[in-house]
Specification:
This protein is an alpha+beta fold. It has helices spanning 20-25, 71-82, and strands spanning 34-39, 42-47, 62-64, 67-69. A hairpin with a 2-residue loop joins β3 (62-64) and β4 (67-69). It binds zinc ion.
């Protein structure tokens, strides 16, 4: 994507509007969730998607104590539990 430069003011509530041109270009829709991270002095917005906490896959996830886990990792953990050295 071509670089886009916009200047926006943050309001009293700390909100900032993502320009419509950017939302359209990135297909950002109402109610989409974004993860906010800080790297140095830069604020990074990434589309939020659930991922397995161990391998990062986004498929067939199940919730476990508020975290997401995929069947492969769940199975590996289950195998670990059967290991006698534990
Ligand atoms: Zn996994």
């Amino acid at each position: 994507m071509e670089s886009m430069g916009f200047i926006r003011e943050i309001d009293k509530m700390g909100r900032i509007v993502i320009p419509k041109e950017v939302r359209d270009a990135l297909h950002i829709q109402d109610k989409d969730k974004y993860e906010i991270t800080v790297e140095g002095e830069e604020i990074i917005l990434r589309k939020f998607s659930k991922k397995c906490v161990f391998c990062g896959t986004e498929k067939n996830l199940k919730d476990f104590n508020g975290k997401s886990i995929c069947p492969d990792c769940a199975s590996k953990i289950s195998e670990l539990q059967r290991c006698k050295s534990w």
